[in-house]
Amino acid sequence: MINDDFYKNSFILTLSNLSTAILRFLFSVVLSRELGSEGLGLYALIMPVYDLFCCLICGGMVTSLSKETAKYYNKKDYANLMKSVKVSFVFNLIWGLFVTSIFLLLCPFISKHIIQDNRSIYPLLAISPALILVALSSLFKGFFYGTSKVKIPSIIDIFEKALRMIAIIVLMRIINEKSITFTVTITYISLTLGELLSFILLFFYYKHNRQRLSKGIISEEHTRSKILKSILIAAIPLCINGLLTTALSSFSTLILPRRLILAGITYTEALSVIGKFSGMALTIVFFPSFIILSFCTLLIPEISKYIASKDLIGMERRLRQVMEISFYLGMINMIICIVIPNQLGIIFYSRTDIAPYIVFLAVNAPILYLSSCTYSILNGIGLQSKVLINSLISSVLEVVLLFVLLAKPSINIYGYGIAMFISNIISFVMNFYFINRFYKTKFTLKENLIPTLICAICLNISLIIRNYFTFMDILSKTVVIVILGFTSFIFITVHIKKNLN
Predict the structure, then answer these.
(1) Where does this chain mainly localize (predicted)?
(2) Contact at 8 Å (CB) between 389 and 380?
């Protein structure tokens, strides 16, 4: 039986992701105040383009290299492990320089014809150096995840997010210019500076940890071409999947203002609505997803270890734990957002007009969290082709729904949430079908009775606090309800872990 370090490493990574999520959340608050809702909308239109090129440069490499290094690390085959990192570095460097050059050449075209806002040209140029930095950093992250040294990239992520926030505040104060073009450009310059710091620190700690892997078993050394082929075989389907889904996601984001205009909203108002819906409400609702990200990051190398040791019973138990925990995290988060949407909007963004968006998006949380972890499970058991097909189907469906729903005046921006909800349900159903073919599983009412009761109790107590504790101010009520919610989640997690061990 594999030593159960999964929860220990997940806890470490969750603490890191909590820190980065808080910094990211504070960053979004700073952005909302520095950029305004219109500037935040323009920022949101540029980010998908950056994500698309990041995916083209290094999509699948973190996952693929973490699986490869986990395989060699468990065998103490350090020679092939280090060769995997080196050959991946050279490949990503060459490929990254090529793609970054193409991106620079395409910036004017992207700004004018794709984003269709000439103010985006300077932010696009500002973010271009980050592409090559992300490509190289992804390899070191894959190395650390595969060798179960999750603390290093976790702590570095915290420093990166902190630098980004400090940089944007300092630059905004030094150069007193408040135009949207300038503020959005400064925001993306801060992102590039953060990626530079991340790369430098990851490289330094990689060099330090590499020296500790000098001794290991004597094994048959694989050629560089064979190792690269093995990595790319796993990475390319993930890259294609990420590229297609990111392209569709980018297209979805870019059509938002155009379809909203057809619903009778001006372009400026459309950017403002997008900023409030996706830049503010969505950030609040999906803030706890850092916990799911921790599970998903570690689940793929964890599954590789179970398969290598032929411990299928242990693997099945782990997968059920992750799926149940993901679902109930979404339930607790949904309860909090539905009970105190006004309070969350006021405390974090000083706005009362995003409360309806928070409530509407909160319904997505349980199924979105569950769907996200099923993609990692499929990747871990080697069904990358199914990941590609399923995510492509759900992404196309989301684009079609957005195209139809956003232009309806009675629905407008709410079509974004409807499309997200339906596509995530379809994703989960398709993913679970293939997971269930790999191993038979079932979720009984008896097993889920206690977690469901905890959720119900949490909901009722939260409503009582909101409605009857008149002696408490808004901040105090919010803090108490959030603590209650996540205390409930801890009890649920402990119960699930104990029940399935």
Answers:
(1) membrane
(2) no
Alpha carbon distance 261, 182 (integer Å): 25
List all residues 6 or more positions away from 414 whose beta carbon is below 8 Å from its beta carbon.
360, 405
Least trusted range by pLDDT, from 6-10, 148-152, 196-200: 6-10
Query: Is 393 domain-assigned?
Result: yes
The model's pLDDT over 260-269, given as tens digits with 9 standing for 90+, comes to 888 888 888 8
Total domain count, the chain: 1
Q: Which domain holds residue 250?
A: 6-499
Please, are residues 329 and 60 in contact by the beta-carbon 8 Å criterion? no
390 closest CA partner among 233, 248, 293? 248
Q: What is the pLDDT of residue 14?
A: 67
Instruction: Report whether 324 contacts 44 (CB < 8 A).
Output: no
**pLDDT higher than threshold 70 for residue 17:** no
Q: pTM for the full model? A: 0.69
Element housing 358 (H / E): helix 355-362
Length of the chain: 501
User: DSSP string of 391-448?
Assistant: HHHHHHHHHHHHHHHTT-TTTTTHHHHHHHHHHHHHHHHHHHHHHHHHS-----HHHH
Sign of the CA dihedral with 213 first, then 76, 223, and 138 last: negative
Q: What is the predicted pLDDT for the residue at 443? A: 61
CB-CB contact of 84 with 147 (8 Å): no
